[in-house]
Amino acid sequence: MNEFKKTPTIQDVARVAEVSSATVSRALTSPERVSEATRERITAAVLETGYTVNQMARSLRLRAAKTILIAIPNIGNPFYSTILDAVVQDAAERGYGVLVANRLGGDPTLGLKDYFYSNRADGLLLFDATLDLESLQDLPLVRGNRPLVLSCDDIPDAPLDLVMTDNRDAADTATRHLIELGHKKIGTVRSRTTPNVVSERHAGFERALMRADLPIRQDWIWQGDHAIAGGIAAAESWLALNERPTAMFCGNDETAIGFISRLRQSGVDCPRDVSVVGFDDIAVAEHLLPALTTMRQPRYDMGKVATALLLDILDGPATERTPARRILKSELIIRASTAPPRDCN
Amino acid sequence: MNEFKKTPTIQDVARVAEVSSATVSRALTSPERVSEATRERITAAVLETGYTVNQMARSLRLRAAKTILIAIPNIGNPFYSTILDAVVQDAAERGYGVLVANRLGGDPTLGLKDYFYSNRADGLLLFDATLDLESLQDLPLVRGNRPLVLSCDDIPDAPLDLVMTDNRDAADTATRHLIELGHKKIGTVRSRTTPNVVSERHAGFERALMRADLPIRQDWIWQGDHAIAGGIAAAESWLALNERPTAMFCGNDETAIGFISRLRQSGVDCPRDVSVVGFDDIAVAEHLLPALTTMRQPRYDMGKVATALLLDILDGPATERTPARRILKSELIIRASTAPPRDCN
DNA sequence: TGTGGCGATGCAATCGATTACATGCGGCCG
DNA sequence: CGGCCGCATGTAATCGATTGCATCGCCACA
Asked: Between chain A's N and C termini, which has fewer beta carbons within 10 Å?
């Protein structure tokens, strides 16, 4: 059926349409520059040969891969996969492909990937600030002056384009919600995977407590891992306590899920015995029992905004720019996992 | 610091090391072919210039992009994001990048993507059988004789490499579990997103019922959407029924979550009033209340096996092969959402 | 009728890495 | 001492698309 053994090239089309390859190229990229008659012959020839452009050749020539690289700490986490979803969707609409790098930060083969990824992507979307500024600048993408947009997390003092949520205010809001319910003993499960989000959130947590003149007790602060396991571990330590907090602010929803689930196993009920507020509002949050009170993060929007920012830089003129900072607002979603403390009722 | 304005090329390295670009290329790809002295000079020059290979140029020359394309119906779904995780991990280890295409099937801009993706990926990992065989063969990847591995779903009569789970047996097992608990009135929420998985699962469901001489009632079969919303809709319809099934087999965990959650709102308890078994065993399944009985799908393995299969084809000799079929086993995880029916107690 | 201008098209260089083939050099053996 | 072999390296073609410049008609206007 196909008269060419190999993938047809622009030369093949040119031969069939009886024009030069230059004309074919022009017909495809700026149709108004060729006469109507030739354009039709070329269109027919494209169909006949089944030609599709060879992106490798085009990229080489144009010095643009039409591809962005997205680095995510943990694809399996619904929080990140939603972002990825948004990014892939929007990038595709603007003609860009998305290469995925998982756990770029912690991977010992980073050097290999350097080599591997270089010159393959036009820009980088980084949802992971476990890299410090120095190693970031060592990445060939950045060294090659490729634009980079950082999201979900901040790197202090880095002059980078940034898309974030208002982590500090959000944590403050969540904590205030617990305070307003009457809680005086409030603990938290922090995380360690994304350092600055964590300190921002923790700062918001402490700010709310301080403003309410409530104590910040170190033995009521646990380290989580942004996963269910961390919540479970924190719960076990919580159970061993003599004096327990009556409310907990968890660094994300998975942590809250693990925490509540482990407590339930030991007969401790949420929200009767302890109130829990999560962070993110992942899809299942409202279908849990108790439905989870949480700070909804505009994560789909975060993906969209970050993508738009990066692609605007890529498609725009190569002028000197001052880094942009976009802060998106989170929203408190009150459900059933928070209630007034028992002894205050 | 960097003496080259633009990204350094192999020519720049050659100039610094005072050799030809051919020698640099050889030093990098087959070091044993250059003398030790030159090799050292070249290594030094690579460091000095900060050279990294331009993959576009290499791919053009070698006709291999060192990239695979993965098509997934819904990235946001934890089921798929786990698979993606496995794929990215394993592909990176073997020096391949992963391009993500979301909802390749339903997207009206498929034609655009054709154009766009062609010649960019060496092979395709397809986790979505909403495409029929015909449109599949129209994809340039396939037409260009690029290997393709189909996973999660089957396309009947297609001579394709395949990685699947034992959907029919798994559905049979799940249904038998309900039967063994004493249930006689059993319904199901099917899905429509992945046609053949659905019919396989449904076939397993019906097989189990028939073998137990139980009725297959059409009004006890709902259409879901592999998402929470579908479970909710089915639950609402279930509530309106005069004679209700006492047990439900749900097409996936999200469906089960929505179903149970909606029923609870109306005071119907799982497992007291109705038993529910899910499918997949997503991460939260064991932390739900009730903890979800479900068929665990080896989805991480599915990603790994599919990747290994595709990459073996790509890296192996270009011989004629007969398509491989790998079937992975699912496992029944009994938790708290299933129990004997009330009236049988 | 001559010429300037413009639209359509072709020619050929270019992007950067790879590799078949050519070359040159040194050593070994007869 | 001459010729041959083999290793190390260089030369140049190649992959496929894009694009600056050249060319060729053709029309209009003086």
From this structure: N
In a domain, A5, yes or no: no
Residues A222 and A248 in one domain: yes
Q: Is residue B146 part of a domain?
A: yes
B127-167 pLDDT, tens digit per residue, is 876 666 666 666 666 666 788 898 887 777 777 899 999 99
Interface test with B, best of A3, A29, A46, A55 (most B CBs within 10 A): A55
pLDDT of the residue at B134: 63
Quickly state the pLDDT bin for A108 (edges 50, 70, 90). very low
CA distance B191 to B130: 12
Contact A55 B289 (CB under 8 A): no
Pick among A120, A228, A253, A302 to test the B interface (most B CBs inside 10 A): A120
* The pLDDT of residue A344: 44
Q: Which bases in strand C are touched by protein, i.e. have an atom under 7 Å from a CB?
A: 7-12, 14-20
Q: In whole angstroms, give the CA distance from residue A23 to residue A42.
A: 9
What pLDDT digit, counting tens, does each position of A76-101 carry?
Answer: 888 899 999 999 999 988 889 999 98
> Which one, of A307, A333, A341, lies nearest residue A149 by Cα?
A307
Neighbours of A9 (CB within 10 A): 18
For position A148, what pLDDT does the model report? Answer: 87
Cα-Cα-Cα-Cα torsion B286, B287, B291, B297, nearest 10 degrees, comes to: -30
- Report the candidate in B86, B147, B127 with the shortest Cα–Cα distance to residue B316: B147
Residues A36 and A76 in one domain: no
B91-122 confidence digits (pLDDT tens): 988 889 999 987 655 554 454 456 567 788 99
Question: How many separate domains does chain B show?
Answer: 3
Within its chain, how far is the Cα of B55 from the centroid?
27
Residue matched to tokens 């599915």: B302
Dump pLDDT digits (tens) for A20-49. Answer: 999 999 999 999 999 999 999 999 999 999
C-alpha closest to that of B307 among B58, B60, B126, B47? B126
- Name B residues 9-48 whose Cβ lies under 7 Å from strand C: 9-11, 21-22, 25-26, 28-29
C-alpha–C-alpha distance, residues B254 and B287, integer Å: 13
User: What average pLDDT score do residues B8-12 get?
Assistant: 94
Q: Verify that B313 and B267 share a domain, yes or no.
A: no
Nucleic strand D within 7 A of Cβ A10? yes
Chain A window 41-70, residues with Cβ within 7 A of nucleic strand C: 57, 60-61, 63
Q: Is residue B70 in some structural domain?
A: yes
Q: How is A42-62 classified by DSSP, letter by letter? A: HHHHHHHHT----HHHHHHHH
What is the band of A19 on the pLDDT scale with cuts at 50, 70, 90?
Answer: very high
CA-to-CA separations, A341 to A183, A235, A247, A272, A306, in angstroms, rounded: 6, 18, 8, 7, 40
Strand C contacts in B 207-246 (CB under 7 A)? none
Question: Does residue A290 have a cis peptide bond before it, meaning omega lies within 30 degrees of 0?
Answer: yes
B217 and B190 in a single domain? The answer is: yes
Name residue, tokens 């129990």. Answer: B339
